[in-house]
Amino acid sequence: MAEELVIVAVILSVASIVLSLKVMSDLRKVGGSGERLRASLEREFLEVDRRISDLMRMCMDHDVRLGIMESKGVEMGVAKGEVEATSLNETEIRILKLLKGGEMTAKMVIKSLGKSREHTSRMLKGLYDKGLVTRDEGRRPYRYRLTEAGLEALKALP
What we know:
two-stranded antiparallel ribbon, 2 domains, Arc Repressor Mutant, subunit A, mainly alpha, 6 helices
């Protein structure tokens, strides 16, 4: 969801820039007689820019909150407002399935998931803390592997 909001914000930003360039071009044709129009349009563009910035901040805030909820094992239920606590969230399950294929670095997991570095690192640390993955701390970057407990957790999934 957050990714889609960021895409919308970027599209709005590009549209705002294109519109701004067109209006500025039109104003050059009008010349000095369009000074009030220019001031009005400038105010409008500043307002659009403020709204886009607010939307982007909301997207980032949403992504951070979602990551925190997933790291705590909380997922939204089907009914509005219903919250169901689970032992593993969707992202953690995806990571375990990835690691079932062999050891991976955090960067490899990030690429496979398409999630942020911070979000993926939280998930990997949570899985490590739960004993579902191990990490080779003698090598940099760390290489994560599925433990027997992690394999059992995957087998127990519906």
